[in-house]
Amino acid sequence: MIIRLAKKGDEASIARVHVDSWKTTYKGIVEDSYLETLSYDNRKSMWEKAIQAGHEKSCLFVAEVEGDIVGFASAGPERTKKYKVDGELYAIYILKDFQKRGIGKALYSKVRECLIKNGYKSMLVWVLADNPSRNFYLSLEPQEIDTENIQIGNQAYEEIAYGWNFIGV
């Protein structure tokens, strides 16, 4: 396994991981009609913009196994400014067949290093309450900061913010 910064040309693979991970992770949680609307093209365009933005204030890492991108993680400034944290882990997604192999922890570690390097002191992540991967985040010993209801498609879902007050060494 190799963890590296995303670069131009990775967009389609990141989009595939993003869409496919949503469809497997949230099957039975998020309504099927919403999952069916997820598109590789829309996500590819989103990730093209993220890669073009660079890594000055944010970071986007990919995990490769035998040359194929099987996971990614992104992070940057905390978006709401409502909490006493400055960084945010936006996403970690790993294809189902590659989960539970240490890739998530490796991606988390790289994101944390990147945020520290960019001057961040703390971080949070939002996780759907029914996300089967929630235990992954709990294993990293965060504090629960808040809960909110968010709209995905036509349904409301509970989302939990977990935080780390000090991410430095």
TrEMBL record:
Residues 1-169 form the N-acetyltransferase domain. PROSITE patterns: GNAT. Signal peptide: none annotated. This is L-amino acid N-acyltransferase YncA.
